[in-house]
Amino acid sequence: MDFAKVAFEPMNEVHEKEIKILEKLLKKIENNEDYSKEYHEFLEDVKNHFGFEEELMKKYQFFAYVPHKMEHDKIINELEELQNENTETLKKYFDERFLPWLDQHIQTMDTVTAGFFNMINAKV
Ligand SMILES: [Fe+2]
């Protein structure tokens, strides 16, 4: 899976790590194998990923902190609600909602946020 690169390298690294974990999870779902462990791992990684961006936005008082965090919170809620769903529902969710969302989110919110971090020379 390929997603856009942003102007702040630590964010790209977090995104790449998440995609690897997601690919593992999707393979499990695809093969109808038990995916509870991978789902848990993925959810934790998403929380860390979002938390990482949110901490930096707060630290550097990024102007769009609130709308950015709201997008994150919505997805965390969805992922938490879906964790005991069946394979079909999850497949549909990842294909039709999560992946298009992530693609869009990286190209908009994350791109603007990363541009800001880059411009002010933010330190992780
Ligand atoms: Fe984000």
Report on the structure:
The chain is mainly alpha-helical. The protein has a single domain (9-119), classed as Up-down Bundle (Four Helix Bundle (Hemerythrin (Met), subunit A)), CATH 1.20.120. It is 78% helix and 0% strand. It is built from four helices and no strands. The radius of gyration is 15 Å and the shape is elongated. Bound molecules: fe (ii) ion (FE2). Fe (ii) ion is lined by residues 53, 68, 72, 105, 109-110.
Write the layout of secondary structure elements.
Blueprint: H1 9-30, H2 36-59, H3 65-82, H4 87-119
Helix pairs in contact: 1-2, 1-4, 2-3, 3-4
Bound molecules: fe (ii) ion.
Number of helices: 4
What is the average per-residue confidence, as pLDDT, rounded to a whole number? 97
Radius of gyration over C-alpha positions, nearest whole angstrom: 15 Å
Strand segment count: 0
- The helical percent reads over 70%
- The proportion of strand residues reads under 5%
Bound molecules: fe (ii) ion
CATH architecture: Up-down Bundle
Main β-sheet description: none
Total count of domains: 1
From the N-terminal CA to the C-terminal CA, the straight-line distance is 26 Å
The CATH topology label is: Four Helix Bundle (Hemerythrin (Met), subunit A)
Question: What ranges have pLDDT less than 50 throughout 5 or more consecutive residues?
Answer: none
Structural class call reads mainly alpha
N-to-C series of helices and strands: HHHH
CATH class identity: Mainly Alpha
